[in-house]
Write a structure and sequence with these properties.
2 copies of one chain form a homodimer. Chain A has 172 residues and is mostly helical. The first copy, chain A, contains 8 helices and 2 strands. The first copy, chain A, binds a DNA duplex (28 and 28 nucleotides) through helix 2 and helix 3.
DNA sequence: AGAAACATGTAAAATGTTACATGATTGT
DNA sequence: ACAATCATGTAACATTTTACATGTTTCT
């Protein structure tokens, strides 16, 4: 099973929306994709260099990087590949699981952290929603909004859990 | 910022519950921690070897690995460290985000995948709950149940999202 | 007897983060 | 002038997966 990098996917996908510099690409990923993706410069630049060598990406006169037809074909075929489902590592839940060693008070602080992070997340997502609503409607909008919804549902789930967890932990 | 491995945490934590072999440790992680953690043999065995060299873990006569007092102290101090919050990479949402390139039909199949995975997840978690209820009540129980709740809330959030996503995608 | 599960490990390759270096452009 | 942001990259290091190798024990 060849595990081709998912970074390629994010990079090609980002450039499929509009040509931009590597720096702008990183900003875009941190902004809109921030709640379910991340990339560091240390990966973006080497990836862009390789994709350029392979003719998937070209640099325009103004410095921005643009997807070639070959790059778009590659993106489509990569997107169609089956998704690898990896249970993500959750450092908070790992600590709660071993909460007996950590103690109820420290666990409560972790719950607080989850709650404020989820609240912050909902604010950011509301901002993305507003941003999307400002732009002229395009073919990408429904897809972007679906990822926002997913982030919101997940954040609300964390808030609900925080309430339950706090109720349990104060009794210990 | 020294990024000491979180694998240490999972391994020490697992052995803090009861002594076991590396193989059993991996099974335990895949079982109970499966919905928010994973470790491969390629990491468990080298980690166990290092922790043994450092006197955190010793091998008993029956072959099982046991936490030493030093190991337990180390576990406690590592658990108390601030949690690094990394937005996990979500391959499905990445594909949905670029759904315009992928097409609505393929997106619907991804939604199906999320739904069946979430349903399966709820079944597994119900199983863990039943398992925990069978065992005599101990000091670990409330903590384990909190991680189960977190998994259930997250799974239900994915199910809700799947309904919304399907409604959106069938119109495209 | 044969299959499946138990058990331990290593090596290579891929993946990813962090820190550093360098310089241009823009805003105050 | 100065700070912040834009912009590109490299090198070192850490992490993680995958595939392979090997042998034992348990179940049918």
């Amino acid at each position: 099973m060849t595990r081709t990098s998912q970074t390629d996917l994010a990079v090609l996908g980002g450039l499929s929306r509009e040509p931009m510099t590597g720096y702008a690409l990183r900003s875009a990923i941190r902004g809109t994709l921030g709640h379910f993706w991340n990339e560091s410069f240390g990966q973006i630049y080497p990836t862009l260099a390789r994709l350029t060598r392979d003719g998937m990406v070209v640099r325009a006169q103004d410095g921005r990087l643009r997807l070639t037809p070959s790059g778009r074909r590659h993106l489509r075929s990569r997107l169609a590949e089956p998704v690898e489902v990896v249970p993500p590592r959750n450092g908070v839940l790992l600590r709660i699981f071993f909460g007996r060693e950590l103690g109820p008070e420290a666990c409560l602080r972790l719950v607080d952290q989850v709650e404020s992070e989820a609240t912050r997340s909902l604010e950011v997502l509301a901002g993305v929603r507003a941003e999307v609503a400002d732009e002229p409607e395009g073919p990408d909008r429904p897809y972007v909004l679906l990822t926002v919804s997913a982030g919101e549902e997940a954040a609300r789930a964390r808030l609900r859990w925080a309430v339950e967890a706090r109720a349990t932990l104060v009794l210990l």
